[in-house]
Amino acid sequence: MLLRNLTQLRELHLDWLNISSHLPHALLNLSSLTSLSLDYCHLRGKFSENIFHFPNLRKLDLGGNWELTGKLPYFNVTSSLQFLDLSSISFSGQLPKSIGNLKALNILCLFNCNLSGSIPASLWNLTQITNLDFKINSFDCQIPSSISNLAKLNGLYLSKNNWNGQIPDSLGNMSQLTHLALSSNNLNGQIPDSLGNMSQLTYLSLSYNSLNGTIPSSLFAPPSLVGIGLSNNKLQGPIPGLVYELQNLTYLLLSSNNLSGVVDLDKLLKLKNLIYLDLSYNGLSLSINNIVNSTLPNLEYISLASCNLSEFPNFLREQARFRSLDL
After folding, report:
1. Domains of the chain as residue ranges with CATH
2. Percent of the chain at pLDDT above 70?
């Protein structure tokens, strides 16, 4: 009853409130809302498409309501939406072509949203987007070169879908990108050299695909890199020497490829921020100088299985924060 009377209400944030019911019908009377956030409220039943069409709505956040069902509506050209988060709800169907009408959209999070099919070309014209999260859906298409139209993008999360084909060279033109996650898809071909042009990149995840060829040296060029995941692909050849220059690196995950050559463990010991190191199940050999007295003070996980070790690395004896060791 209270909500029904608040017809001039502008913002309603009830995040983490255990509503445990269908969406209150009284919400449909609040067409003056500019911001509606019902994150993790245990809502269930079908979500009304009418709310998407509130004329002044700029933010809609329904994330984490596992039992909330529905589908994406036709989006009007007049929509004011800037923030749309439908993550981890039980919507279904495809992304409508009308998504391209959301010209003001900055944040689009459809993580774990049961969406399928292809991505309409109109999406890549939403040039104001800074964060795009499509993880854990069933999108089945290629990543188009026109994705580089999203020049303001900081985070691009496309992991755990059915993306296929090659990684487009045009991704390297996205100079503002800090997080790129393409893992657990069906991507193939070589890693484009152009990815090294993303000077702001901090996290790169390409693991669990079918990428082949060598690792381009340019991939380790961005000085801001903190995490790199290339595990479970078909990569071959040596690890580029530039990896030893990445002083901010905390995650280096290269396991289960066909990499070869010698890794200078003493040089890796200069990367004092490393937390997780996995070089296992390749054709690598480790060069160890056990006279060197050095440690990795933050190291918690290390896997050197199948790395042709002939002696126990002395630095491992002094690691105080170990959680996992695999030799």
Report:
1. 2-257 (3.80.10.10)
2. 98
